[in-house]
Amino acid sequence: MTASKLLRKAEQLLARYPLCDWCLGRQFAILGYGLTNRMRGNALKTLLLLVSTETYQKDRKRGSTCLKRLAEKGMFLPALQFLEKEGITGITTVKQCSICLGVMEQLEEIANLAIQKLNGWEAASILLGSKISPDFVEREEQLRSELQIENGEPLKAEINREIGKIVIEQLDIPVDFKSPSIVVVVHIPSFTVELQVNSLFIYGRYRKLKRGIPQTKWPCRECLGQGCTRCKGTGKMYPESVEELIAAPLLEVTKGKSVKFHGAGREDIDACMLGTGRPFVIEIMTPRKRSIDLEAAIEKINQYAQGKVEVSQLRFTNKEMVKLLKSSSATTEKTYKVITQTEKPLLLEERQKLEAIPMPLEIKQRTPQRVLHRRADKVRRKQIYELTVTSLKNDKVTLLIRCQGGLYIKEFISGDNDRTTPSIAEILGKPIKCIRLDVIDVNLPEEELQR
Ligand SMILES: [Zn+2]
Ligand SMILES: [Zn+2]
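Above: query sequence and zinc ion SMILES. Below: predicted holo structure tokens.
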């Protein structure tokens, strides 16, 4: 575009629409670099003033038409001052830009509102967004189609950028387009500010040392959490859970509202989780504090959980880790210590039979009857890698079983009315049941989680 073409375009715009510097400049936003649209708009108005004062010297009528336009619709003070000096009166300056209705002049004010709103919220990074009433966009689109503007940028992009610049500079927080701690959304033209606070994700491993605790909070079956006589008003099936024991101290230090607990699989309520523990991610919703001392948090949790649950290896992570945990848990190797009971003590040859099972052993397991109410009825194929008889006392046999994740161990022992096959009961040819189950190891290598 030649200089005269550019100026003509600017002049045409001002002939039809009152425009502030920002809104005029935005129509040429892709031209130049390192400039604000306000600078672009102001430069164009200045050039138009220079050109039209020269025209004015030669042709007063033509020159003053352009100068009046600049003063009136361009709201350009130097043009008004020039006309006043020349004794030309009767100029009525438009008070408001026809596109932004003066919003662009108030960016600083909006940014200050955003800064106030962020007070009390710790953020490692932020992103500024906006919700702009559609009539702003419609007005600009109309102007652009009328005058074939092709070098503009959306009003929204400019508002986000310019307010963002002020907020970021004042608070000294970096911008993050991918995963900011907080998205600050300004509403235009109401000037209300809304914060979308993203969750804080903490990874760790937990050990469960006491039986009878579910992994996650379990709403009362009778009242679905409302509180009734069955649950003694707690709304829960169990008074505590691994989730709650870990969450309470973390909610206190982060001042978060609630949590979501994501485990790499889960053990039965009556099973302990031993060894190095089970990987988990706890997602803290709307935290006010983020840079918490994780070593101190470990101590705090372990103290609070009074030996029922222990956590270790806490570290900050992100949403991706939740997906990784979920996708890997079905195949992750697990090792169990299982105490089983038979009607009569096992004979030596029966023990030998168990020890002679060729490994790996493939198990076909139809969804156990006890979980049918929450799981689809289907057959899963799972591998057993290792099975050792570690002790045999009277009618109690202790087994160590290393297998693929997702195998239901209790049913592998009992056979679950032939829904699991082969099973220990099937191999022995007599009834046997699991009376105690502990998870000894969840073999999810840390390296796999670092990817
Ligand atoms: Zn404007
Ligand atoms: Zn209840």
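The radius of gyration is 35 Å.
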